[in-house]
Design goal:
By secondary structure, this protein is mainly α. It has helices spanning 3-26, 32-42, 45-61, 65-80.
Length: 89
């Protein structure tokens, strides 16, 4: 976690605002992370790239660069080989 970014967000949005944003990502069953995972498992390349890109942006804004980098790697892989969606053998 990028603590300076989280501290800055907390100053701007308050603890409750940051908690809401984290909930939007991590909420079981409905969060952006679950949504992205479902798209990676079931969607085509274009949908996967869009979902990864969206999640990556949210993660970066919330000070979670390691998770954002993981999304970026998926985007790079999809761009390098658009014939093969992620999550498929």
């Amino acid at each position: 976690m990028d603590w300076p970014t989280i501290e800055e967000l907390t100053q701007m949005m308050g603890q409750e605002g940051v908690a809401e944003q984290l909930q939007a990502i991590y909420s079981p069953g409905t969060g952006a992370l679950v949504e992205c995972t479902n798209v990676v498992l079931q969607g085509g390349v274009a949908q996967q790239r869009a979902a990864l890109h969206k999640l990556k942006g949210s993660l970066m804004l919330l000070g979670l660069p390691a998770m954002a980098a993981f999304c970026a790697k998926g985007e790079v892989k999809l761009k390098a080989d658009p014939s093969q969606p992620l999550g498929r053998p």
